[in-house]
Amino acid sequence: MSDDGESVSTVQQHRFVPSRPNGAFVLAVTDGPDAGRTFRLDDSMPPRILIGQSAACDVRLADPQVSRRHAAIELDGERLRVTDLGSTNGTFVDDVAIIEALVDDGFRLRVGSTIIRGSCDAEPPAVELPTATSFGRMIGASREMRRLYRLCERLAASDVPVVIEGETGTGKEVLAEALHEEGARRQGPYVVFDCTAVPANLLESELFGHERGAFTGAVSPRKGVFEQAHQGTLLIDEIGDLDLSLQPKLLRALERGEIRRVGGDRPIRVDVRIVAATRRDLDREVQEGRFRDDLFHRLAVARIELPPLRARRGDVTLLAQHFWASLGGDPRALTSDLVSRWEATPWPGNVRQLRNTVARRIALGDLATVDAERSVVASSDVIDDVLQKSLPLVQARQLVVDAFEQRYLERILAEHGGSVTNAAAAAGIARRHFQRMRARVR
Asked: Is the pTM of this model over 0.90?
């Protein structure tokens, strides 16, 4: 039942697939508070644009029945892919409630009380995508990645705050470093602050520093990451996990360009370019009260969403070859059959998982097998395989332990939504030990 009482059927993968000529789409708002507005979608746009009330949405609507981040639209070949983002009132294509749909020329989209008509512009202006296969250290020749490079170049040349979103392992930190290295602050420091890697009671000190005697153990003054990043770039990784009590202090530092150390009585001016990264849906975090709306708007002046590896057609081969060479693998061992199997893998862990897989293949050879259902992991018959190697006891035992720990950590992290803190607690081990285990078996 829709918000207005209309009975509709919900379709998980509703597809509208008649053919249409190549071209751009024009979205025209025909009903609702924004009636008369139009939006154009073509290859000059980011790979995915957002519809909603949030200031960070590309198609921003004033309709109060529209969620902050209501739906997403992306070009998919000659059609559009529409995805509902867990909106309160649902997304409807031709009066059918959808979770995801492929639509074509002439579709009718309803979000809240707003009606949007989509039509094809058969003769759009020619848009040439960059021919580059990388942006700094960010590698990718797929159309999905090349469409980002022009935006990345502009952001690198600017000094505005940037929020980088994407699934775990998509390369958010790599992109943040590339923005720094390609920008005017490249000669300055590049500092990373991981909101999930610091105990809650030390977060403020790590961010802003402390004076001697500020708390037990503060035997000398210490600079926080803001001061360390002065005249450079500060990446705040997993910003969506930042404790709510610290968010107003971070907002104050961003707005005033100054910080105050814990236990200090004077402000310290800082000149820092902020890049924030998150795997979370910040719009939803704001809507549910876990992230401050004013801090979100201060950070999301610009926004980039990195596509998952499974959506980057052709990049698995390019990345596998790059990792294989950089890790010192024998070129003859990277067979076309192996690469083809990797191309067919869904890669839930994205680029990070692919790199770990390549490293494991180089180290273990045929002991590492492709498991397309879960990930690339050591064979379930790893004990028999290790025994056939006739290795010394210590080496053989370590291979088995590593295979078990790698699979155990992947599973328990998945069960707890990627939260290291919760996964470590469930595993019954200290968070620091959990992190050391992850680093060793990657």
From this structure: no
